[in-house]
Structure formats: structure tokens, C-alpha cells
Design goal:
Layout (H helix, E strand, L loop, with lengths): L10 E10 L5 H11 L14 E10 L5 E3 L1
Antiparallel strand pairs: 1-2, 2-3
């Protein structure tokens, strides 16, 4: 692979990981514990909506240009 900006062959592929959403809601967990007891703590994980995205990019080691793989 060659860089489209400087035509260098000194390029490598990298993987970027991003995530959105919450992992655990302490408020929902406490409310669930009050209403339902120890099992209610699991309510904090309900509807968490956490999503993980992986994107692959090429990066030129000479000029720093980055483009999608």
C-alpha cells in the first residue's frame, strides 16, 4: 500500500475502537435494590445500550496521513 499524499510505502494498518453508551447505571441499580432487593441491582444493567465500533485505517509513517482501509 502506498500513501495517496506522499507516495511512501512506509504505511501500516491500525484498528481504532470506539464505544458509545453506558456500561452500568448506578441510579437504576440503587432503585432496583430498594424496590426488589439484591436481585434488583441487575436493573442497573438493563437498557445499557453500550455499542462498540471497530474501524480500520491505513496510516503513513512518513507524513502521518490517515485513510480508511
Amino acid at each position: 500500500m502506498t500513501c495517496p499524499k506522499c507516495n511512501s510505502e512506509n504505511c501500516q494498518i491500525i484498528n481504532e475502537v470506539t464505544q458509545t453508551g453506558k456500561d452500568f447505571s448506578a441510579g437504576k441499580g440503587c432503585l432496583g435494590a430498594i424496590c426488589l432487593g439484591p436481585i434488583g441491582v441487575l436493573c442497573g444493567a438493563c437498557g445499557k445500550g453500550k455499542q462498540i465500533y471497530n474501524k480500520k485505517f491505513w496510516v503513513c509513517n512518513n507524513c502521518g496521513n490517515k485513510w480508511k482501509a
